[in-house]
Specification:
Elements: E1 21-29, H1 35-42, E2 51-53, H2 56-61, E3 72-74, E4 78-83, E5 88-94, H3 105-109, E6 114-119, H4 128-137, E7 141-146, H5 155-162, E8 170-173, H6 178-204
Parallel strand pairs: 1-5, 1-6, 6-7, 7-8
Antiparallel strand pairs: 2-3, 4-5
Helix pairs in contact: 1-6
Length: 211
Amino acid sequence: MDSATSDRPAVRSHLGSQASNGLKIVIVGGFGVGKTTMVRSVSDIRPLNTEEIMTRAGQEVDDLTGVTGKTSTTVAFDFGRISLNEKTVLYLFGAPGQERFWFLWDRLFSGTLGAVVLVDTRRLQDSWYAIDRLEHHGTPFVVARNDFGGPAHTHEQIRDALDLPADVPMIDCDARSRASSKSVLIELVTHLYRLSTAREGARAGAPGAVG
């Protein structure tokens, strides 16, 4: 996907002194699915990128199916920050997508409260490992279908292909759009809040719970 971003604000905001709720969020998915683009489009600060020009040797190792026009690749992680409101700040970490860098994911997931799994419906199999590792760590996540203009698939078809539980939210997005990417993050935070509320309710209703 073209990394050019749209509807970016002319002036980036500074972190307010009232911000007290910082959440580590990981954006993960297959190679070339739009993770770097999403961090760039939505970050309130100049994002940290670890992109390098793809070499011939790298092109021979990485699967470029569906991303033949890609000329650069993330070799560590991307980092950005967005304030959803005066108190809630998301620290965004974009994971490298190539299989040879997957060993970094478990370390990157440490301390993560939630994740966005970006998917390209032309290459859904590239998302399986990300979902597997998040489920292994017990990290809540949402699935965001990035718009690459491929064949149309219903959410039900994508859920079946990814074997997603019914309670995992799915949303469509355009990673180049700040507004669209922000909507994905809001959906994730809402999902995290629902899960937290459900856990609190379960504890309150457990035998022996003290009011």
